[in-house]
Amino acid sequence: MSGKTGQQSSSLSAAEWQRRLQIQFGSLGVEERAEQISQLLESHAQQRLLLDESLSIDHEGQTVAVLTIATQSDGTINFWPAATVSGLDARDAAELRRLLYRQAVDLVEQSGCWIAQCLLTPQDVVASRELAAAGFPRLTELKFLARSLNQPLPAETRRPAVVIEPYDEAINRERFADVLERTWQGTLDCPELNGCRSGCEALDGHRLAGEFSADRWLLFSHSGADVGVLLLAEHPAEQVWEVVYFGVASEARGRGLGQTILSDGLRRAKQAGALELVLAVDARNAPALQLYEQLGFRPFDRRVVHARLRHR
What we know:
CATH architecture of the largest domain: 3-Layer(aba) Sandwich
CATH topology of the largest domain: Aminopeptidase
CATH superfamily of the largest domain: Gcn5-related N-acetyltransferase (GNAT)
Distance between the termini: 41 Å
Number of helices: 8
Radius of gyration: 21 Å
Mean pLDDT: 92
CATH class of the largest domain: Alpha Beta
Number of strands: 13
Order of helices and strands: EHHEEEEHEHEEHHEEEHEHE
Largest sheet: 13 strands, mixed
Structural class: alpha+beta
């Protein structure tokens, strides 16, 4: 199949975006597809995700293949697997997807972003293989966990004494960033990301998750030293809080501080009226998974991450 390959910007009309997104999410059921498109357009309207690019291929005046790209203000690019209209020959469809991935690599390389990522279900075997071949290698698999706050919280036990400070842009931003970087040392949670951005850049990125409030970002100190951070965000529509980031500095691990920090987060979320606390964790991070299980978190979803990274 031959066709016209083009790259269109966010100057597309609302009707054209709808048409392309219908192709992008054509594999979903009608209701799920409508919900996905509605959420994406709402995120764009709120400037959480910016629909800057829609890569497409036209044939005889009709769009036959689409790859949607959305960016965040922190230099993160999110994209979805290339999608083709139904009825195409399987070889033609695969070639169209390959062409779109080639365009996506060029766009990413020119953008200067720190990461371009695509999340798949474990069943998306073909897309996973095509992404890896195109220059977006498999990074890891994420497990999504939830902890119901209707259930009793962990019993109070003797834990390390900590001092907790909320985030203040003018006072302790650098301390937050410093602890954040120290939690990356020896981490089992997506270690491939180490060196891609600074602690301050990471804070700016985490701020985009959910509804930000400085009093939900917490710095933990023990014996006079900063040892951990817990960044929480609210999703009011679902009555859910999210652990956007949680970490203990490498030199402070093995003292029970992780359980202390997370237990504090559970109490705060419950007191605020949240129904659940949710998080994502690298499936390779066995110690963290064990801790989450002990605190009552249970898995509800999995995603395979393919990504192209910028390293310092």
